[in-house]
């Protein structure tokens, strides 16, 4: 297969972003025929159809989705190449990491684990520009965003039923316990209705829940852990929540340990092997380990 050029990779991403060849042509300042030719050439070189063409535009095929992920990662490495080379060349003169750093995290990690790490990162490396997105830890979650080239590092639930994908590398930042959360002063909190949210769903936790005959089926499934905590605070029920979700819990809720057999959750980071060697990602991992500890 002949090597693809960066411009050909950018055309692929433009078609995905616009959802059509005409939209990509407008975004890139090309003619539609030039975009069509570029896509056909790329498909021929790869040996697979990358987009389904139809009246509604262009939709990535399974092969296209995979290719687009690699395209984003390759273009990101090309962006980093110059910055890393300059940092290496200027190491003796005190050069520091600089440039954008794309981070994805699930909600409670973005609220409570990431900010102190970014504060220290900014103090030590003011040239790094963190770009943070909150992603629900469902399906492919934050690891999927890294695999697809949309993020340089993701904060994810790892280990057990959520292993680090084979194409990524990662590490543990913290182990945290689940606890029973209920309205403060309630005389029998285990009799309250159960409140839950979709991300609170590792298989280990669900197996533990299934073995507890005192836990009823959830009567309310909220959008996120913040909504669950708010409803518990209002006296609407109880919940079983991990440590990060309980930071700054109001006085109106009470947190009760679940005993020695309580479920736990492992929170870690994931990145690609190539990006793990970049100065900015290594700097962020150092600060995250301080926050996680």
Largest sheet: 7 strands, mixed
CATH architecture of the largest domain: 3-Layer(aba) Sandwich
Can you count the beta strands?
A: 11
Radius of gyration: 23 Å
CATH overall fold name of the largest domain: D-Maltodextrin-Binding Protein, domain 2
Report the end-to-end length measured between terminal Cα atoms.
47 Å
Q: Are there runs of 5+ residues with pLDDT below 50, and where?
A: none
Please state the average pLDDT score: 90
Tally of structural domains? 2
H/E series: HHHEEHEHEHEEEHEHEEEH
Q: What is the CATH level 1 assignment of the largest domain? A: Alpha Beta
Helix-residue proportion: 40-55%
Q: Please tally the helical runs, counting DSSP H or I stretches of 4 or more residues.
A: 9
The assigned structural class equals alpha/beta
The outline comes out as globular
| Residue fraction in strands | 15-25%
